[in-house]
Amino acid sequence: MHDIPDEIWAWIRRELPDEGFRTWLWRAPEETLRSVLGSAYENVLSADSVDARALSVVKDELVASLPRACACPLLVTKQWLGIWAKTTPAMIGRSFESVRKRNPWLSLLRCRTCGEFWYVAYDTVDDGWYFERVTKDRARAIGEDDDWPDTFDEFENVWPNDGADRSKEPPAGFLAGVAMTLLD
Ligand SMILES: [Zn+2]
């Protein structure tokens, strides 16, 4: 099995648009892609124009069939997850180790399998997880300098009641993405 290029994962999780993926596909090594994508390879390249609905089906099939060691390839950069049996704090803790805690609801986590870093908010008021993918450099800044991204700074649900003026409005840009189905 070949390593699966990041572009394929990004396309499957809908972060790389079809047109951009097609352009990338034209330039990428054909043999690797044929073995990873199977018949989807022809489907994407042969069509005169992009058929978004057909490709969406292809993506869903790949979500189910592509081998992966952990959930990270399917989590979008700003991933929201509901809370159910597979996403209790104990279950999340099996897959991700805590690198640094900012407060009881905000942590820097690292995937135990692939090493990817995530700045994570655990909303116990409206029940949900907010996973934000962070680079190694960003993770280092958090770890060494206590320099946290401002993603959750205004979100009341993940801070103690300290009198600061925050909002119940969830942080912008987070999506349920495809990961909800595959963790089920
Ligand atoms: Zn991972």
Kindly describe this structure.
- The protein is α+β, with helices and mostly antiparallel strands and 184 residues long.
- It contains eight helices and five strands, in the order αααααβαββββαα.
- The chain starts with 5 loop residues before the first helix and ends with a helix.
- The mean pLDDT is 90.
- The site of zinc ion (ZN) has 6 residues, from loops.
- Zinc ion binds at residues 70, 72, 111, 113-114, 116.
Give the gist of this structure.
With 184 residues, the chain is of the alpha+beta class. It has helices at residues 6-12, 18-27, 30-37, 39-46, 52-65, 89-95, 136-145, 179-183, and strands spanning 78-81, 96-103, 106-111, 117-123, 128-134.
